[in-house]
Every structure is written in structure tokens, then in C-alpha cells.
Amino acid sequence: MATAQLNDATTDLDQYKVEKAYDRWAPIYDLVFGAVFRQGRSMAIATANKLGGRVLEVGVGTGISLPEYAPGVRVFGIDISAAMLAEAQKRVDKLRLRNVDGLAVMDAANLDFPDGAFDVVMAQYVLSAVSNPEATMDEFARVLKPGGEIILLSRVSAESGIRHFIEQGVAPLAHRLGWRTDFGWDYFARWAERPHGMQLAERRPIPPLGHFSLIRFRKGG
């Protein structure tokens, strides 16, 4: 029996359009977003480096985060955009990143890995750009080993105030660019209540301006 969706908005993005949007972003993504997301990216990867083991980075994009992983951490990166992955492969080759085990085009909601394959699942600025966040999170939990962690950098939209007003105003443009602004904490809270053995380990806002949060879920075992 299919599970109920967390919210009707979980399926409001056309995944094909998202893929094409990020194909277009590929040549300039680092220039536009690299500095903006640097602090959050470094915080998330520092956490993954402490945990160690085998990391799946979902939405690896141009591979901008790959050089920050510790040499002893094994990383496999996936993305829906082949153009993004082409940029990531250039970075791996140029920097000779020997701890990157592979890069592959893959749907985050249908991962081609066995259960319990990774110690960490990393997803930076991904969940607000997938067509079904619930199914995507379920897949993260499935491929995670007991004791492992899901590490997310994600937009958490405001429930009221000026930021809420601004987010609602720019929502149509954001959809055309490949992500949604209406992504509240309720997505995560409802998912965490499900019987999948995952527990919230951390939630903290990060720059810029608290629009995004570092969120960690730990799998019991």
C-alpha cells in the first residue's frame, strides 16, 4: 500500500525540468553559488569527516565539495544532471581525488545501491529540488548502515514574517529555476515520526541569513 505524501507540494516539481535547469546551471554554478554556500558546505563535510567510512553524496553537482573530504573517506557522488557530473569528473581528474570511488547519473528517490551500503548520506541543498522529498528521504534511510547518519543542508522556509512573505513572492521564479521555496520544517518532522529507525540528531540554522539549516538524522542499530 502506498504511503500518504507528507504534503501535496512534495510532487509539484517536474523532475525533467529540474534536470534541464541544472544542466543549464552547470557551467556557472560554482561562480554563482560557490561562495554563498561555502560555510554550510564546510560545516556539513566536517561532520562527515568525523564520522568517516563510506559517503554517498546526493546531488554532488559540479563536485565543488569533493576536495574537502578527508583522504580516508570514500565518496560516491550522484546527480540527476549529466552536465553537472561532467564538471565534477573534470574536478576529480584535475585534483586527482583518489578517494572518489565514482560518479553516476541517478534519481535520488530510486537509488541503485543495496541496503546499508553507506556510513553517511550527504545531501546539500537537494531536498527542495526533488519531486518527492519523502521518497527521497526513505531511500537515504534504506542505503544507510545502522549507526550511520543522514546529513542535510536544506532550505527551511519561514512560517511567518517578512521572510515568509518574500519566499511566497519568489516561489514562481524559484520553480522555474529548479527548486521550491515552500519547504517548511513539517516535512522533516512528519518524516521523523515514521517507524524507520531514524532519530533527529541535530538541527541548526546556517548562513546566509538563516534561510538554510544543517540537519542530521541518525539510524538506530
Structure description:
The protein has a seven-stranded mixed β-sheet. The chain has a single domain, classed as 3-Layer(aba) Sandwich (Rossmann fold), CATH 3.40.50. The two termini are 26 Å apart. The protein has seven helices and seven strands; from the N terminus they run αααββαββαβααββ. The relative contact order is 0.17. The model is unreliable at 1-11 and 163-178 (pLDDT under 50). It has helices at 15-25, 29-33, 38-51, 82-95, 133-142, 161-177, 186-192, and strands at 54-58, 74-79, 100-105, 118-124, 144-155, 198-206, 212-219. It is of the alpha/beta class and 221 residues long. β6 and β7 form a beta hairpin.
Name the descriptors.
221 residues, Rossmann fold, 35% helix
How do the strands and helices of this protein lay out in sequence?
Blueprint (H helix, E strand, L loop, with lengths): L14 H11 L3 H5 L4 H14 L2 E5 L15 E6 L2 H14 L4 E6 L12 E7 L8 H10 L1 E12 L5 H17 L8 H7 L5 E9 L5 E8 L2
Parallel strand pairs: 1-2, 1-4, 2-3, 4-5
Antiparallel strand pairs: 5-7, 6-7
Write down the Rg. Answer: 16 Å
> Span between N and C termini?
26 Å
Task: Look at the structure and name the CATH superfamily.
Answer: Vaccinia Virus protein VP39
Query: Largest sheet, if any?
Result: 7 strands, mixed
Class from secondary-structure proportions? alpha/beta
Task: Spell the H/E element sequence.
Answer: HHHEEHEEHEHHEE
Strand order of the largest sheet: 3-2-1-4-5-7-6
Helical residues, percent = 25-40%
The overall number of domains is 1
Task: Report the CATH topology name.
Answer: Rossmann fold
CATH C-level class: Alpha Beta
Beta percentage is: 15-25%
pLDDT < 50 stretches: 1-11, 163-178
